[in-house]
Amino acid sequence: MVDATPIRPRSAATVTKWDYEADVVVAGYGIAGVSAAIEAARAGADVLVLERTSGWGGAAALAGGFIYLGGGTPLQKACGFDDSPENMKTFMMAALGPGADEEKITDYCEGSVAHYNWLVDCGVPFKESFWGEPGWEPPFDDGLMYSGGENAAPFNEIATPAPRGHVPQMDGKRTGEKGGGYMLMKPLVETAEKLGVRAEYDMRVQTLVTDDTGRVVGIVAKQYGKDVAVRARRGVVLATGSFAYNDKMIEAHAPRLIGRPGAAIEEHDGRSILMAQALGADLAHMDATEVAFLCDPQLVVRGILVNGRGQRYVPEDTYSGRIGQMTLFHQDNQAFLVIDEASYEEGAAATTATPFLRAQPKWAAETVEELESDMGLPAGALQSTVEVYNKHAAEGSDPLLHKKSEWVKPIGSPVAALDLRGFTLGFTLGGLRTTVNSEVLHVSGEPIPGLFAAGRCTSGVCAGGYASGTSLGDGSFYGRRAGISAAKQN
After folding, report:
1. For residues 293 and 313, is the Cβ–Cβ distance under 8 A?
2. What are the FAD-dependent oxidoreductase 2 FAD-binding domain coordinates in residue numbering (predicted)?
3. Which of 296, 317, 368, 401 is least enclosed by beta carbons within 10 angstroms?
4. Do 10 and 133 reside in the same domain of the chain?
């Protein structure tokens, strides 16, 4: 529920007293906010972070912890993988569109190795080991994994596959509760605190404050139910996350997510976007959404995914986020996994970070014809799909969707189907249009003076597609830029 407090900007002339003051004021203490705070402090600014909850972390601390980095990071090299900024850009432009921001992606790829080194210098630990199994994330403390379908069709023909999912090393991870994202946030917050960054908690930002020239000079927030005014002598950085939990904004901009659970935190209510919009800020890719597919990849890769017509529609060995998008956007959220008994048992016994996503078969039969009938599919629909798949699988190929040969195996008997209809949830990727220096742009195309933003409240490197790690990667990368830019203001 969005607060009913007026969102129109306040005039500084109406502020009788500033309750807090700093050179740079950062709204949000997640990955974008902490990165902005560190760089602003290193640039000599006095920094104050306003956090809505009672502690740092945001969605980042609950995330699996993937940071999308490449171009030849020390971790990639240590694990035996070659990559270059150009190769990374080729993949990202193909996978993150349509309409991907080429200037941002070029900038991000060229700065990726330096960004990895920055994280390491801030104390973020990475183990020099690669996890090569299908999965949402490494189940152990391995530091590198494929996280965007780079090694699956069609991307493995477009760019040379290289794993770019960098995960902070952490013991005792619990997916969705305390993931690798915690070990990303903890050292960064400690770095910020050593630099003298201050934080005020239970601060719900309400609106921006501008002077008579239109420059952003502060924020009005609610702290413990009381309005407080916070002055920013140099600049304000917005870093409060997406609008995944604002039903009104979802209905207006990303209606494909209506009724789908938000894969975010409830504090992601879009307030920063609305605050900046009230100043005339431009938006980009507000319809863009990531969609998670809720079935363990170790099972999915060993069967075939079919839609409500019994037809395959996606290579099963690709990134689960891509499967989710293809299912929700193009198959009316209808999906079934057809798999034989031997393959199901093999997948169920495989090591995974998400054993709780191992769905049980709903239907089982001795023949595909019986299974098809039990599922209520038109006679011959599933049979023809399996027949074509098995014909080529006998030779270890998949000319239809190009699943890699290592996962291509004829479907035998007995055979079962998992009912995965509606097994998707998502979060928003669109937001404020920003420059590579994290300046928030007015609809006129000019930067709004004194206002910067980063993270999921902005439109970053993802314009439609997604790869795990682009949120934490983009948020930290452009969070740093926001802090530097804000600190430079007079």
Report:
1. no
2. 23-469
3. 401
4. yes
Considering the domain architecture, whether residues 315 and 273 belong to the same structural domain is answered as no
Contact 259, 434 (CB under 8 A): no
Please choose, from the candidates 9, 106, 111, 3, the residue with its C-alpha nearest in 3D space to the C-alpha of residue 449: 9
Last residue of a domain, one of 371, 398, 422: 422
Mean pLDDT over all residues of the chain?
96
pLDDT tens, residue by residue, 18-49: 999 999 999 999 999 999 999 999 999 999 99
Rounded (5°) CA angle 58-436-286: 60
Dihedral angle sign, alpha carbons of residues 481, 485, 486, 488: positive
Note the pTM of the prediction, 2 decimals: 0.97
The pLDDT assigned to 176 comes to: 62
- The three-point CA angle 379-382-386 to 5° equals 135
Look at residues 389, 422, 455 and tell me which one is the last residue of a structural domain. 422
Query: Inter-axis angle of helices 31-42 and 180-194, to 10 degrees?
Result: 30
pLDDT at residue 97 greater than cutoff 60: yes
Q: Which of 171-175, 224-228, 419-423 has the lowest mean pLDDT?
A: 171-175
Tell me, yes or no, whether 246 and 147 share the same domain. Answer: yes
Q: Which position has the token pair 């349509």?
A: 98
Same domain assignment for residues 246 and 270: yes
Cα–Cα distance between 292 and 199 in angstroms, integer?
Answer: 33
Q: What is the 3-state secondary structure (H, E, C) of 275-320?
A: HHHCCCECEECCCCEEEEECCCHHHHCCCEEECCCCCECCCCCCCH
pLDDT of residue 19: 98
Both 400 and 484 in one domain: the answer is no
* Strand partners of residue 229: 220
Rounded CA gap, 259 and 256, in Å?
8
Strands 216-223 and 203-210: what pairing? Answer: antiparallel
The tally of domains found in the chain comes to: 2
CATH code at 302? 3.90.700.10
Residue numbers of the domain that contains 327? 295-422
